[in-house]
Specification:
Elements: E1 4-6, H1 7-14, H2 18-26, E2 32-35, E3 38-42, H3 43-52, H4 56-116, H5 120-126, H6 139-148
């Protein structure tokens, strides 16, 4: 005897949503027909597909495996992020040192320029010596000064 059931009944029997039943109909995994505006599902085709459907324990084991793989990926990404943070810190320190060297050179050049802009007679009669080079402080001293502020 051909027994046709509604999508709602099929969903209840399969313990899934009506939308899933309609997807199975669309994939032609369930035998179905349309009467008016609603679908009817052939009950025997529903039972056949339920026997073929994967067991919940199989699905959960697959999901657990995928979850473990994702956890491993997250750990790898966290390690990469830590490495990148360390690289950024090293580059920032290098940049700070370069900036300090740049400032020192600019200060020395400014003093020399001031000396050379004096009139020749002042240089000749005052016998002023070349300016002393700017004291080169280490980057650690600069950092210590910044921390004091």
């Amino acid at each position: 005897m051909d027994e046709w059931i509604t999508v709602k009944e099929a969903a209840r029997l399969r313990n899934c949503t009506e939308r899933n039943i309609l997807r199975l109909v669309q994939k032609e995994e369930l035998k179905a027909k349309r009467e008016g505006h609603r679908w009817l599902i052939f009950k025997e085709s529903l039972e056949q597909t339920s026997e073929e459907s994967p067991n919940m324990s199989e699905v959960s084991s697959i999901l657990k495996t995928q979850l473990q793989e994702k956890d491993k990926q997250i750990e790898r990404f966290q390690k990469q992020l830590e490495e990148k943070d360390e690289q950024i810190k090293n580059l920032q320190d290098t940049l700070a040192e370069a900036g300090h060297r740049h400032d020192t050179v600019i200060m020395q050049m400014t003093k020399l320029l001031e000396y050379h802009q004096q009139p020749f007679w002042r240089k000749l009669f005052q016998r002023k010596q070349l300016p002393h080079p700017v004291e080169d402080t280490t980057i650690n001293e600069v950092k210590a000064k910044k921390n004091e502020l």
